[in-house]
Design goal:
This protein is α/β, with parallel strands linked by helices and 200 residues long. The chain is built from five helices and ten strands. The chain has a five-stranded mixed beta sheet, sandwiched between helices. Strands 2-3-4 form a three-stranded parallel beta sheet, with no helix packed on it. The chain has a two-stranded antiparallel ribbon with strand order 7-8. The radius of gyration is 18 Å and the shape is globular. Bound molecules: S-adenosylmethionine.
């Protein structure tokens, strides 16, 4: 008699679409992500279905409405699942803009600006999500002069605001960022990002 092998997902992915499909399967009961308030170009939706609600503070794609993820035009407790992918670079100085592809995603002024944005969007996510609703939060650690473990702060702020940290996946994308070859390397080059799954 033939026994069917059960498929298990592992926590590290090298393909964003596969990661999101695994989350949809495990954490969203196979249902699509309902809301993306930081849509940008919609790169998440190359292999999964587009969300019902799409917003961005400066929309560049047709069908995406203008809204601030800190104050969404949605009823409280109306959303089942959502994804947040905020800008993660901060600290504008000297050559920052030359070394990173900064113009597309925006650089935040400093850590305080990052903290204000992240706490506000997590708070708003908590407002609009139903009980047991799922927030997927993409983030990455950031090294400038020093390293900020952004994913740890995201965990802390989400848990403080009432979320349960249900799962965490790592996306490994070794595509190199531009760096200054004249500088001595003092930190590991970050080639991975984090996808938190928070449950309300
Ligand atoms: C890292 S990009 C998102 C990339 C997107 N996930 C994709 O795959 O194409 C961040 C986006 O957040 C938007 N954004 C920044 N602050 C925002 C805010 N307060 N409310 C809504 N969108 C915001 C930016 O305009 C940018 O499009």
């Amino acid at each position: 008699m033939e026994t069917k092998m059960k498929k298990y997902y592992k926590s590290v992915f090298d393909n964003e679409q596969e990661l999101l499909k695994a989350f949809i399967d495990i954490h969203l009961d196979g249902k699509d992500i309902e809301l993306d308030p930081m849509y940008f170009k919609g790169n998440f939706y190359k292999g999964i279905k587009e969300p019902k609600y799409k917003f961005d503070i400066s929309p560049i794609v047709l069908g995406v409405k203008k809204a601030d993820a800190r104050r969404l035009p949605l009823e409280n407790e109306s959303i089942t699942s959502m994804i947040l992918d905020p800008p993660f670079m901060f600290g504008i100085h000297g050559k920052t803009k030359e070394y990173y592809s900064s113009s597309t995603h925006g650089i935040l002024q400093d850590f305080e600006a990052l903290k204000e944005l992240y706490q506000s969007i997590i708070r708003e996510a908590y407002q609009v999500l139903k009980t047991k609703g799922i927030l997927i939060f993409k983030c990455q650690d950031y090294t400038d002069n020093k390293t900020t473990m952004v994913h740890c702060f995201v965990w802390q702020w989400a848990v403080e605001l009432g979320f349960y940290a249900k799962d965490l996946a790592i996306l490994y994308l070794p595509k190199g960022k531009v760096s200054n070859p004249n500088l001595k390397q003092r930190h590991l080059r970050k080639v991975h990002s984090y996808f938190w799954v928070f449950e309300k």
